[in-house]
Structure prediction request, 201 residues.
Amino acid sequence: MPAVSAADRLSKREQTRLRVIQAAIDCIYQEGFNAAHTNRIAETAGVSWGVLQYHFGDKDGLLQAVLDHIFDNFSAALERTPVAGDDLRERVEQVIELIWSLVSGREYRVSVAILRNAGKDSSSAIDGEEKITQWSRRTSRLWDKLFADTGLEPGRSDVARQLLFAALRGMADEINPGSRSKKAIAEEHAALADAVTYLLS
Prediction:
């Protein structure tokens, strides 16, 4: 019996909804937030404006759904990716690679664009706080689980965690990250691993 993909298990309604969300991500990433009009997104998804309105109500509803989708994917990645090892630096390196795989991708960039632009519009109904809070809690739980054996005071461990996440977000937010070579990124990650390992030691 042939395997059934996750997409095949979705209802037709869910498939349409997911297709529109993916189209919104594509449009925002490729054309920019301001150019990603709902008509353009609907066209990319192969649906009418009426279908988009039926599923999401308006553009804010669609963008909220995009944020929810992205942060749910991030959380799922944390849950399914094994990070372990007896060596402290090895664990730090694994966390760096895991978080980098998320924040260096297009979904992260799209989420940042949505949140930044929503923050500029006082009439926006988009609320990313709940998902950001959930994401923060899950990353904190992962961190505590991985580095509980260090015996550090919580304050110092928090400094190490905040340094790691802030540094990786900063690298990902650079204007033209594609101009940096793999070697340069690896060197930056190694320097970050040195600093975080030192703080956790």
